[in-house]
């Protein structure tokens, strides 16, 4: 057993290492934020033009800070995306010494899929879910005889609040694969949880889409398919684990 003084030094060493890695991440994020501010305007123009191709809207500044706030939000998201690989690398360097070989292998194999599925989810949300939500809300406002005056900051918050949750939900297969490799999940457990999972995913689809059946269905069905793909992935990974265990026992 290590002495209390040695334990304190070990904890202090871990805290110093953690602080050092956090500082590095913040410095990289700050540099990426500056670059994001330089590219925020063309990204803003692209988001706005892509949205107006589906629903004709006119944005207004309802506050003196709306323009700056939008640029900062776009720059923040760009900086987050740009610095995410470095952030994951720093997390990996910090936790990898305490992981087993199988856990390190599982984490490394999952990393490429994280970016791919996040991008697929963002594209699906922006080009499928957002237009439906814009069309539905705009049609309701017009049917009520309301004069549409959309605030630019509110519009971009509306878009980001849809894109980000859907993008994160698309990470479900890679999360299931990672948890199955660690032995924390298996296909049998996921099949037993199917009813609860279906209800949760349909509830999320209803919350983030306009309140009409078609929109809910167009979002709920891909999420349910993602869950079934996750069950299949878990079954494949679990079967391979059983085969490796059988070979080692032989």
From TrEMBL:
<keyword id="KW-0813">Transport</keyword>
<comment type="function">
    <text>Part of the twin-arginine translocation (Tat) system that transports large folded proteins containing a characteristic twin-arginine motif in their signal peptide across membranes.</text>
</comment>
<protein>
    <recommendedName>
        <fullName>Sec-independent protein translocase protein TatC</fullName>
    </recommendedName>
</protein>
<comment type="subunit">
    <text>Forms a complex with TatA.</text>
</comment>
<keyword id="KW-0811">Translocation</keyword>
<keyword id="KW-1133">Transmembrane helix</keyword>
<keyword id="KW-1003">Cell membrane</keyword>
<keyword id="KW-0472">Membrane</keyword>
<keyword id="KW-0653">Protein transport</keyword>
<feature type="transmembrane region" description="Helical">
    <location>
        <begin position="25"/>
        <end position="48"/>
    </location>
</feature>
<keyword id="KW-0812">Transmembrane</keyword>
<dbReference type="Pfam" id="PF00902">
    <property type="entry name" value="TatC"/>
</dbReference>
<feature type="transmembrane region" description="Helical">
    <location>
        <begin position="158"/>
        <end position="184"/>
    </location>
</feature>
<feature type="transmembrane region" description="Helical">
    <location>
        <begin position="220"/>
        <end position="238"/>
    </location>
</feature>
<feature type="transmembrane region" description="Helical">
    <location>
        <begin position="113"/>
        <end position="138"/>
    </location>
</feature>
<feature type="transmembrane region" description="Helical">
    <location>
        <begin position="196"/>
        <end position="214"/>
    </location>
</feature>
<comment type="similarity">
    <text>Belongs to the TatC family.</text>
</comment>
<dbReference type="InterPro" id="IPR019820">
    <property type="entry name" value="Sec-indep_translocase_CS"/>
</dbReference>
<dbReference type="InterPro" id="IPR002033">
    <property type="entry name" value="TatC"/>
</dbReference>
<feature type="transmembrane region" description="Helical">
    <location>
        <begin position="68"/>
        <end position="92"/>
    </location>
</feature>
């Amino acid at each position: 057993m290590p002495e209390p003084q040695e334990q304190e030094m070990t904890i202090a060493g871990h805290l110093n290492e953690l602080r050092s890695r956090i500082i590095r991440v913040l410095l990289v994020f700050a540099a990426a934020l500056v670059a994001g501010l330089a590219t925020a305007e063309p990204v803003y123009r692209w988001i706005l033009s892509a949205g107006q191709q589906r629903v004709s809207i006119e944005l207004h500044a309802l506050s003196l800070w709306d323009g700056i706030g939008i640029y900062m939000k776009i720059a923040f998201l760009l900086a987050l995306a740009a610095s995410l690989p470095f952030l994951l690398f720093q997390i990996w360097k910090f936790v990898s010494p305490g992981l087993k070989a199988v856990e390190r292998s599982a984490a490394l194999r999952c990393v490429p899929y994280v970016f791919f599925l996040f991008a697929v989810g963002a594209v699906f949300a922006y080009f499928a879910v957002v237009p439906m939500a814009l069309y539905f809300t705009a049609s309701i406002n017009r049917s009520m005889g309301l004069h549409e005056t959309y605030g630019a900051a509110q519009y971009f918050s509306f878009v980001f609040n849809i894109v980000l949750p859907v993008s994160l939900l698309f990470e479900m297969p890679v999360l299931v694969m990672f948890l199955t490799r660690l032995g924390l999940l298996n296909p049998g457990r996921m099949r037993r949880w199917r009813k609860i999972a279906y209800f949760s995913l349909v509830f999320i689809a209803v919350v983030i889409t306009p309140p009409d059946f078609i929109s809910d269905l167009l979002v709920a069905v891909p999420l349910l398919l993602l869950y079934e793909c996750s069950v299949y992935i878990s079954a494949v990974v679990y079967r391979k684990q059983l085969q490796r265990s059988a070979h080692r026992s032989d």
